[in-house]
């Protein structure tokens, strides 16, 4: 895919979006002095830019259109059905940004939180579009840390019949990427930055802190 830097080439592919606008905005998302309002706006903007990249492989079909001059053979999207699924709660911050480019997408929700002691994900909610098997899914979450939440969300979608899933996040740790690749090698991963490591509390270093708290102003 042009414009992408492939970091690994196992079964699931990892795409790091090195577009200057994405990298510029991500810098201010990381900055601890960025307040809630600006943080939310930046996450929304980066989600839109990432959606532009992630839809690069959408299928097209040729149609005829009458221009004022003649008949042109030209292309339109071939009606692929998409669903966006944020992992609650921080994933919500990326939904509207993606919908700006794919307004007809349906939106499902998977509610997961990390147990602060075990760091294991706990599912508390799941609601998907009825026609799960016909849709291509894009799971969104700003952070891929241990990978526990992402793996569980993918499990949850697959259990309900989803067959084609992409995972999109702002910042990933190598541990999280590896967890998806080992458990769901069919799921490609789209990220704005691949960071260095996790700290002892399972936070991404350097990361951006707690994405949910920064988006919603909680602590
Ligand atoms: C954060 C983040 C991911 C998860 C990543 O959510 O939004 O869902 O942690 O960590 P993992 O890869 O180690 O599972 P959190 O559990 O803090 O819940 P929240 O969105 O409700 O704040
Ligand atoms: N969840 C977050 O919000 N931030 C991290 O760094 C890791 C998990």
TrEMBL record:
Q: Which residues bind uracil?
A: 204, 209-211
Pathway listed for it?
A: Pyrimidine metabolism; UMP biosynthesis via salvage pathway; UMP from uracil: step 1/1
- Keywords, A to Z? Allosteric enzyme, Glycosyltransferase, GTP-binding, Magnesium, Nucleotide-binding, Transferase
- What are the residue boundaries of the Phosphoribosyltransferase domain, all occurrences included? 16-218
**GO molecular function terms listed in the Swiss-Prot or TrEMBL record:** GTP binding; magnesium ion binding; uracil phosphoribosyltransferase activity
Activity regulation summary? Allosterically activated by GTP.
Q: Which reaction does it catalyse?
A: UMP + diphosphate = 5-phospho-alpha-D-ribose 1-diphosphate + uracil
A Gene Ontology cellular component where this protein is annotated is: cytoplasm
- Cofactor comment in the record? Binds 1 Mg(2+) ion per subunit. The magnesium is bound as Mg-PRPP.
InterPro entries in the cross-refs: PRTase-like, PRTase_dom, Upp_B, UPRT, UPRTase/APRTase
Which coenzymes or cofactors are required?
Mg(2+)
| GO biological processes | UMP salvage; uracil salvage
Under the heading SUPFAM superfamilies, the entry gives: PRTase-like
> What EC number is given for this enzyme?
2.4.2.9
In the record, which residues are listed under signal peptide? none
Matches recorded under PANTHER family: ADENINE PHOSPHORIBOSYLTRANSFERASE, URACIL PHOSPHORIBOSYLTRANSFERASE, CHLOROPLASTIC
Give the protein's biological function.
Catalyzes the conversion of uracil and 5-phospho-alpha-D-ribose 1-diphosphate (PRPP) to UMP and diphosphate.
What is the name listed in the Swiss-Prot or TrEMBL entry for this protein? Uracil phosphoribosyltransferase
